[in-house]
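Dear support,

I submitted the protein below through the web form. The confirmation email said the job was done, but the results page showed an empty box. After a refresh the structure appeared. I'm attaching both so you can tell me whether what I see now is the final result or a partial one.
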Amino acid sequence: MSTQDFLVELGTEELPPKALKKLSHAFTQGIITGLDSAQLSYGEYHSFAAPRRLALLIKGLEVAQPDQKLERRGPAVQAAFDAAGNPTKAAEGFARSNGVSVEQLETLDTPKGAWLVYRSVKQGVKTTSLLPEIISQSLANLPIPKRMRWGALREEFVRPVHWLVMLFGDEVVDCEILGLKAGSESRGHRFHANQPLVIGQPVDYQKVLEEEGRVQPDFMARRETIKQQVETTASQLGGQAVIDEDLLDEVTALVEWPVALAGRFDDEFLSVPAESLISSMKEHQKYFHVVDEKGALKPFFITVSNIESRDPQQVISGNEKVIRPRLADAKFFFETDKKTTLEARREKLQAIVFQAQLGSLFNKTERIAKLAAWIASQEQGKPELASRAGLLCKSDLVSDMVLEFPELQGIMGQYYAAHDGEAEEVSKALNEQYMPRYAGDNLPETLTGCAVAIADKIDTIAGIFGIGQLPTGSKDPFALRRASIGVLRIIVEKKLNLDLDELIRQAAAGYLETGVELPEAARLQTTAVDYMLERFDAAYQEEGVATEIINSVKALRPTRPLDFDQRIKAITGFYEMTEANALASANKRVSNILAKAGDIVIPDRIDEALLAEAEEQALAKALTVKQEAISSLLEQRHYAQVMESLATLKEPVDSFFDKVLVNAEDQQVRLNRYALLKQLRNLFLHVADISLLQKS
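What the results page shows now:
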């Protein structure tokens, strides 16, 4: 089958910059899925995405679908012909339904007899006939929340469309999509080359746009160009550019022909917290900031222009004029905010609703303060500092700076608390309360910060679960998943000996004390705690921990996250030992035996006088020795050493099952052997239910 290269490009008004990557990926995948469904083979493909275009180049695309051999089975030969060999009505009807005579039918012999069959070849449809529908379907399925119409046209898209290129080889695909007639003419840069560009062959696309159109259509190549230009420009300024990946993506989606330029702002603004200046430059102007070798902000910014100006200084001056009032606003907010203490701002939180059924943010800070103090006391911290930080933790939300830049919540709280003369640990905790803000983010450094961060998250979890608004697979408006993972990370990585059961209980009591009743309070120890423990699953699976290991620990439901983690690590090590599978199998067998015992009361102690067989005597002795050996290890939660010790039970356990009949006829002997197995199982259940570890 012969092949041709294929190019499709849709030209539009400037596409939403934050959605460009997603739109490009969906456009490409939609077309590839369509080709696969049509059974068209192809070679490598390459996506292109720029502010005014989505495009895809596919090499080696088949010119038509492969022909299909069709076979349709009819009646059995025995029923198709009478005794004289004449076709029956069944044979004639089958032939007629296929548009042929009975003589044109063939016979298919099978082990179950012979059948009439009709064989034919369905010719493959030309690719050019299939492409318009494939492209249209891909565009229709793009993740666009709200489509728009323009002019008097009925077509809808995320932005008005202006041109359509569809080339198969050197031929234009004859079709119309979104009201556009397909052609071979693209467009160049809006300012540098705003003219038609003829694409002769699909493979010429990138070269023509770059050399004639001053457009760099490859998103990732353009992104790398911007990154290199920004880094080089920062180096020339004697500093280092801080390149946020999301900002880099957004800037890449804003320009077609990137040119990095450096500007400067007045040194006086450096007296304002760097985070507020950075936020203003990044969020409002899409600038990259520059720092020195110590990470301190320098009075420079780097903007990425979409034109290669003959007088770049004019562009720089324009940007400097724009950024000055923004930074002046930040300075004004900062100076104004410092005139009112965080403590004085607390009263304003009375008017801000946390959740309709759960009271105000003021109420929430009271609960956080009490819970944080309790957490600090459990970990030998400073309850008075945790309580103070809890009371002040939301006060910066009503500051002018945070009202203008919401992403600075907590950060400005730390600055304002330091200005108010609060203890250093209290000040830091006001920022640390939001940690970790995202996956892989840093954790609080101070114990006070850990206490407030946990208290804030647990208060939200207990409250939302307490009113029955559990998160679903698609809806989690209070970010309870993130909050739960944050609590688990802090407790485990900071090695805190906190119990989720007790944390939730304390949080529920806090609601009651502030006059808020939680209808589901009685079930929180099940619903909220189980939900939090389930967050461990994905985290451990990402680390490569086997599901069997996770389930073996979950079966015991340890509610102290650090303890849970220690058990996981111990069982992970045990799982790799040669004795693991045999002992898991033996525990599974023991579990089944004890389950079948039903309501029979199995003694807790072994009667040594009833141990008749040498193998059961040896196992009983081994269990006694192990019980004594692991007792102190369990108290110190040295679970890995416990499992290493118990692994040596493989030999006496194997011998017992090989030589001893568990279900002896004598009832007393049988119960005594059950008691022996019960002790064996209980030894392992100190750490996990290893019966769930059995490998296939």
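Response: this is the final, complete result; the empty box was a page-load delay. Residues 312-337 form the longest helix (26 residues).
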